[in-house]
Amino acid sequence: MFNISVIIPIYDSANTIEKPINSLISQTMNPEEFEVLFIDDGSEDNSSEIIHKMMGHSSNNWSYIRQNNRGVSSARNKGMYVANGKYIFFLDADDQIPADFLETLWNHAEKDEVDLCWIWKIFRSSEKFRLKNHPMCGFNTGKECLQAYLDQPRNAQILINQAVLNAHNIRQSEDIDFGEDVDFFVRTLLHSRKVHVEQEVFYLSQKHKHQVSRNMDKIHARLTMIKVYDRLILYCKENFLDCVVIDLLYTKRAEILFKLLLLTVKKRDWSHFSEFFKKMDFPGAYQHVIEKSNLSPKWRIRGVFILRINKTRHLWKKIWQD
């Protein structure tokens, strides 16, 4: 068994795949102690040729697996299925990690006997200093870290003990195309007894015009996030009795739906507004969202107006049922 399995989903990544490969070849961790799994999700470019050429000249343990195009979550799940590492780590095909990344995380994971290492994703080195003050840095249990994450969400990646994933049958959801990381993070944190929040090494993420998240329709993306939070709320109700986490999930759902309503107002999309308005089923959370949001005075007033209409709707619905 390896210490770490690094899983890299590939889809037409010829223009970027050299970055993660170079960062893995340069790792200070003994190459015999980790494996690299390239899961090609039906690429039509020469990604495979580049991978075989670069990895063929390295001393790393690696495998290349090709499947029909089923999406990034399917590729990650395939990687987890064949992984032989004690810990699982996902690396995107356009990102990179520092040379001491794997060794640093492995040392913390083994020394502190943690289920999960939390690593911040950064786009600029200046972000490091702000993230060291994030509330998660003060906690070391899954529940505490989850509450801090939901309160102040930031882009991240995790190193997770494969035993935790297998014990609780945690896999990536293949039927959603946005927010899959949030869904995965919440479920892994819920089942992690001890967590290490890394503050020395960071995941180096890249922004470019071809990223799926940058080109996705905003309404579709937010509707998908509502679906993610609905699932997580149900998951928590079925598996946990922690009302604090459930309330936080309801609040995050309310925040997404409220932004969706404001977006439809800005676009004068009244048919979608009516559809989304009916989803407002947790009134208390929306008042909290308005109070903590950075809305301009004009949009804050509009938000309060929406809430008052919704409150009246719930009142009439109750009277009608009675």
Structure description:
- By secondary structure, this protein is of the alpha/beta class.
- It folds into two domains: 2-211, Alpha-Beta Complex (Spore Coat Polysaccharide Biosynthesis Protein SpsA, Chain A); 217-321.
- It has 14 helices and eight strands.
- It has helices at residues 18-25, 47-56, 72-82, 101-112, 127-131, 142-151, 162-167, 180-190, 212-215, 218-239, 243-266, 270-277, 283-292, 297-321; strands at 2-10, 34-40, 61-66, 85-90, 116-122, 156-161, 195-197, 203-204.
- Strands 1, 2, 3, 4, 5, 6, 7 and 8 form an eight-stranded mixed β-sheet that branches.
- The longest helix is centred in the last third of the chain and has 25 residues, at 297-321.
- The chain is globular.
Instruction: Please indicate the count of domains.
Output: 2
**Main sheet summary:** 8 strands, mixed
DSSP E strands, number: 8
Name of the CATH superfamily of the largest domain: Spore Coat Polysaccharide Biosynthesis Protein SpsA, Chain A
What is the terminal separation in angstroms?
A: 63 Å
Poorly predicted ranges (pLDDT <50, ≥5 residues)?
313-322
* Broad structural category: alpha/beta
Provide the gyration radius in Å: 21 Å
Shape: globular
Could you say what the CATH topology of the largest domain is called?
Spore Coat Polysaccharide Biosynthesis Protein SpsA, Chain A
Count every helix, treating DSSP H or I runs of 4 or more residues as helices.
14
CATH architectural arrangement of the largest domain: Alpha-Beta Complex
Mean pLDDT, all residues: 85
CATH class of the largest domain: Alpha Beta
